[in-house]
Amino acid sequence: MPVIARVARPSQLSETVSKTIEKWILDGVMAPGVKLPTEKTLSAEFGVSRAVVREAISRLKAEGYVASRQGAGAFVEARPGQTSFRLADAVDPAGPVATAHIFELRYIVETAAAALAASRRSDQDLVQMREALLRMRHAVSERTDGTQADDDFHVAIAAATGNPALLRFIRFVGHQFFASRVPTWNAEGHAAGRAEAAQAEHERMFEAIAAGDGVAAREAARIHMVEAARRIGIDTDHWEPAPRAPWEEEALS
Amino acid sequence: MPVIARVARPSQLSETVSKTIEKWILDGVMAPGVKLPTEKTLSAEFGVSRAVVREAISRLKAEGYVASRQGAGAFVEARPGQTSFRLADAVDPAGPVATAHIFELRYIVETAAAALAASRRSDQDLVQMREALLRMRHAVSERTDGTQADDDFHVAIAAATGNPALLRFIRFVGHQFFASRVPTWNAEGHAAGRAEAAQAEHERMFEAIAAGDGVAAREAARIHMVEAARRIGIDTDHWEPAPRAPWEEEALS
DNA sequence: ATTAATCTGCTTGTCTGACAACTTTCGCTA
DNA sequence: TAGCGAAAGTTGTCAGACAAGCAGATTAAT
């Protein structure tokens, strides 16, 4: 019986197995392209049934660590970081600046997406944006929740770039701040005029994109991002080693 | 260009099932916290064995979409997945435009990073860049391989932004094109003057960043990215001419 | 009557054995 | 030697069974 890293956490056998194999790959014990032991061998060495091993490999396949070919075997696909980008690896979740750093990343891609959308959007893209915009308008007047429409609007812009990779990434980064939109759209946000303010910013973005004005679209998106950051209380004063965000320098002048 | 929903791949039953359930969750058919059907029910409805359903759920657990408790059931997680970004999900690997889409994403973040680096770089950051630059110079004159130094140079710029999330993402995206640098730095590339050309572009980027000129840094990076795309045969005609943030335009005046 | 303990059915976790689909290897034949 | 086909090995799927744990209903105790 080989060494089995006894992880205290997983009460699930399949998780124990998958974590162990994942560690093998991470530590370079199994290089990319290498065929990993057969399911029968693994089940024997781990002392579990083949079903458990299969579930473990299923996890690893989902995470992109391995790929298997029927009749041939399972092979190490690649090292982590080559196929997937994890925010948990990118920033220290406990760090106070993590949110600001991720938001800056979002700021970069969303402003670029707005500019691209202005020059590439189809009529159908505009329909999607307008539809989300109308739902937000309705949410403002009725003082109801507009977080979903808000999210849909941003996704529609990303989709209008015609770049699926960019679309997916914006959805991914934007999702990290889904909960952050609540203080804008709840009763308090309506009362304080935050929902109305956000809506006005959205309207300007839409107009610029509809007009095909990339520069104006980027500027409108920039303003929206800056205001959104302010609304969720991102403290740019504490930004790491770098002095400050670009929009702050502008505010200074 | 419409959405590419080409997912005909899954010949694996478990993948078909997991993708279907994933779609349910993403489309909001199953809200967070909701208990999904029992394994027996799912196996009956999909017409597959329980083992297949379990492997599918195993995938979903690995991706963070669901969590299951023995005896109780499997429940949709509050934060549906979205803990990692996988390019394999973002683009159709078989599509001819996949590389161009990913490169555009890289173009967006690298040009922004260059602009940020110009305003935030420390003296130590400059040392890192200069070191990589010297190694590339040496590679050009000696006609040796400079891919690693090339990569290090771009990473040094990303690091100078002081944003670890941005750094990590640039490393991730840049790695997708690591192999693409070979035709620039191999014997053929040296002979055709591609290595020398790339080096000149790098020098301009460094000078602008060292001078603290964000606008020039972005423009130099833009040129380098466009040329790099051209060297690996990516069409950049439809790209935005010179995406530039408003604060930089202000800096011009 | 209220509360606590127990029971019972249901669900997930694991095991075993079997067969189908496919790949690789190797020995045989021309 | 080259090509072919059988055989062994491996993953994919299925079926049934039992253990472990949970939730609601039933029963017992105060």
UniProtKB/TrEMBL annotation, chains A, B:
Q: Extract the InterPro entries matched here.
A: GntR_C, TF_FadR/GntR_C, Tscrpt_reg_HTH_GntR, WH-like_DNA-bd_sf, WH_DNA-bd_sf
> Keyword Transcription on this protein?
yes
**SUPFAM superfamilies reported for this sequence:** GntR ligand-binding domain-like, Winged helix' DNA-binding domain
Q: What is the lineage of its organism?
A: Bacteria, Pseudomonadati, Pseudomonadota, Betaproteobacteria, Rhodocyclales
* SMART domains found in the cross-reference section: FCD, HTH_GNTR
**Name of the protein:** FadR family transcriptional regulator
User: What is the organism field in this record?
Assistant: Denitromonas halophila
What region holds the HTH gntR-type domain? Answer: 11-79
Q: What are the alphabetically sorted keywords of the record?
A: DNA-binding, Transcription, Transcription regulation
Task: Tell whether Transcription regulation is among the UniProt keywords.
Answer: yes
Q: Which PANTHER family does this entry report, sorted A to Z?
A: TRANSCRIPTIONAL REGULATOR, GNTR FAMILY, UXU OPERON TRANSCRIPTIONAL REGULATOR
Q: Which GO terms describe its molecular function?
A: DNA binding; DNA-binding transcription factor activity
